[in-house]
Amino acid sequence: MFFFSHATGRGARGAGSRATSVRRLAGAVALGLLTATALGACGGRAEPPPVKVAGPTPELHGTRITTPLREPDLTLTGTSGRPVNLLKATEGRLTLVYFGYTHCPDVCPTTMADLAAALRKLTPAQRARIAVVFITTDPWRDTPKVIKSWLASFDTSFIGLTGDYAKIQAAAKPLGIALERPSSTTGDYEVTHGAEVLPFGTDHRAHLIYTAGVSATDWAADLPKLLREQAATAKGGSA
């Protein structure tokens, strides 16, 4: 059993690149030791329950989990300033959920950029069946306006959510996403958060976890497969 987390915060571009490399290496090590080890959170306060995994999937770049994770029935504030319910806003679509923050120097913008690049490689019909949701782990700085501007630099269709930190943390915990409340929310502070992308199907379940470092090319290869898998699930397992 294991769960993931990483810490991001201040640092020059070079330091951010090195940090990303370290996280990718940590993810690779974790995937290589799935049956025997646990990867702990950076800061014990937000440690979520471990998520049981079945192991790497040769046909996909994610990791299968033994018990599917339920998509949270979560209502937060969208980039328009109005309440948005996660389930209703993404109904009928493959939904890629990521917890992060806009001041993140490395893995958050890289993940959003890779997802946006992958979506551009898909057909319009495929693209219409996918939703990307960014849930902030830094609601003190990430106002609806800030998130909207930040996401627009990647893809204007991405859904951004902010709101009460305790509510966000509670939604992340059963998903195995470690969040740690910053010791201070003034000045240039760091935020510790999990770096995974969870793909929820139309059944509102995630059957895989994607760790940090999945490239745009790999995402572009996996997304059509996930859509086909989702369609088969909706039809009761028929291809």
Summarize the entry for a quick read.
The protein is α+β, with helices and mostly antiparallel strands and 239 residues long.
Question: Which helices and strands, and how do they pair?
Answer:
Layout: E1 6-8, H1 13-32, E2 53-56, E3 63-70, E4 75-78, E5 83-85, H2 86-89, E6 94-100, H3 107-120, H4 124-128, E7 130-136, H5 144-152, E8 159-162, H6 165-172, E9 179-180, E10 191-193, E11 197-200, E12 205-209, H7 216-234
Parallel strand pairs: 6-7, 7-8
Antiparallel strand pairs: 1-10, 2-3, 3-12, 4-5, 4-8, 6-11, 9-10
Helix pairs in contact: 3-7
CATH topology: Glutaredoxin
The count of strands amounts to 12
* CA-atom Rg in angstroms: 17 Å
Q: Which structural category fits the helices and strands?
A: alpha+beta
Total number of domains: 1
The DSSP helix count reads: 7
Average pLDDT, to the nearest integer?
Answer: 82
- What characterizes the major β-sheet? 6 strands, mixed
Question: What share of the residues does DSSP label as strand, in percent?
Answer: 15-25%
Low-confidence stretches: 1-49
* Main sheet: strand order: 5-4-8-7-6-11
- The rounded distance between the terminal residues' Cα atoms is 31 Å
CATH class: Alpha Beta
CATH superfamily descriptor: Glutaredoxin
Globally, the shape reads globular
Q: Would you identify the CATH architecture?
A: 3-Layer(aba) Sandwich
Instruction: State the oligomer.
Output: single chain
Fraction in helix: 25-40%
Order of helices and strands: EHEEEEHEHHEHEHEEEEH
